[in-house]
Amino acid sequence: MSEQPSRVRPTHLVAALLVCLAAPAFFVAEQPVLGFALLLAGLAVAWGVEQDPARAARRTPSLLRDLSLIAIGLAIVRSIPLAAELDNRSMLAFTLALGGAVAVPYLVSRYLYRDRATAFPWFGSGRWGRLHWGWLLSVLVLGWLILPWYFISSGVYQNWPAVDDANLIARLFVGVGAVGIWDELFFICTVFTVLLRHFPPWLANLLQAIVFVSFLWELGYRSWGPLLTIPFALMQGTIYLRTHSLAYVVTVHLLFDAVVFAVLVHAHNPHLFDVFVTVP
């Protein structure tokens, strides 16, 4: 991963913030016109930044091109409703839209812009040590304690379809895991990686968390869900900064989602996965 900028240029921040705020407009307020207006405004500010003659002398990455990759991804995701459904048509739509939101920015960056702004470093910077394995265990324990209380006491488990037969349970398992992997490919390896080319890590992490948490809200993590999803998004960004490992952040996310899956099945079928001690 290249060296991140240490300075925050106000116009760069305004442009990136406008683009990232399109996510809550799209996925929380559900106002697509406002969302696209914010995307266009952010790209317009970035275009103004590009007109600065000093930028060429600094040889910095193009803010306009990089923010356009985020905008393309968000626009593709917004092309479908994000309510969790398990029928063939909905699962196909999810696959095409979410897959396109990762693939299209990658292809545009690599073959049109020719700068490889997005990255998918699978193994990262070394072997996993005790701290890595300890955090994986902690994720399981924390999920086991917190998620049953959150999903069932708030009623948000009803944002996912009832799964009352083996076929639907299998579809839920595949869907939860696939979306979890996609989260890391898009929010971390695309949005976060692009933002790191222009902002210090702490600020890039905050900006990607706006996008990450907004998507999870529409997906179903509502009520007091942001109290969980905000620290989760920030932690995933921090872990990626330390490990540079897509494999590790995906493993963390899949362990978390394994508990989510079990809780959702239990909430609809109390006799299944009856292993949670914090069920209200």
Explain this structure.
The protein has 280 residues and is mostly helical. The protein has one domain (10-268). The chain has ten helices and no strands. The chain has helices at 10-27, 32-50, 53-58, 63-77, 88-113, 130-154, 166-195, 201-219, 226-243, 246-268. Helix 6 runs parallel beside helix 10. The longest helix has 30 residues, at 166-195. It is globular. The N and C termini lie far apart (45 Å). The model has no long low-confidence stretch (mean pLDDT 93). It holds the Pfam family Rce1-like. This is CAAX protease family protein. Keywords: Hydrolase, Membrane, Protease, Transmembrane, Transmembrane helix. Residues 167-259 form the CAAX prenyl protease 2/Lysostaphin resistance protein A-like domain.
Topology as a string of helices (H) and strands (E): HHHHHHHHHH
Number of domains: 1
Q: What fraction strand? A: under 5%
Total strands: 0
Number of helices: 10
Structural class: mainly alpha
| Rg value | 19 Å
On the 0 to 100 scale, the average pLDDT is 93
Q: What is the rounded distance between the termini?
A: 45 Å
Helix content: over 70%
Low-confidence stretches: none
Largest sheet: none
Dominant shape? globular
